[in-house]
Amino acid sequence: MNEQKILWEKLAKENAQHYVLGRTVSEEDFKQTGKIDYQRFILDDEIISTEYPDFSQVTILDIGCGNGRMSEFMAKDFKQVIGTDISGEMIRQAKKRLKDFENIELLENDGETLSLPDNCVDLAFSFWVYQHIKTKQMVERNFAEAFRVLEPGKLFKAAIRSSKAVSKESWWSGIQYNEESAKALYKNAGFSLVQETYLPNSYVYWLWLRK
Fold this sequence. Notes:
Helix content is 38%, strand content 23%. It has a single domain (3-210), classed as Vaccinia Virus protein VP39 (Rossmann fold).
């Protein structure tokens, strides 16, 4: 078991909601944050809404789904939601929270590979995941796997870290990217760039990529 997996198993057992969100809130507020972020990053995304005018025909992959914070709201609109996470404990909690949804499949992975066939999803999405990954190799493997499982011509929307972590020892730290290194990351995976939003004063660098 790799160090990243060990860390997230520990954090999930300690307080999953806190480490998914980065702060402690009530169950009601936690659920609301998932709804708000789903609205901001998927429903209100003009690129996604243009490419996918009918979500009811779309299978979405939620990479790093945690305990299902956003997957819950994806399932209300999308044909199928596949949520993956490095933490088995996160997946167990997600299955408990989302047990009433028949169109959600939740899978534990090793942080580098996905137990999914080639070309099986229409849209891949990841937020608050790669910002915490501490090795370039793991991020690169994730991007390669996202490319593999996507249908040709489809989109991958991902957030990576754009600011240097204060301490690599902290649970939230991860690999930093700039415009040049981000380009190498997605190009090497096989993606072409649709759009990028680089926020130098933030830790989020959004990429919209096409297979």
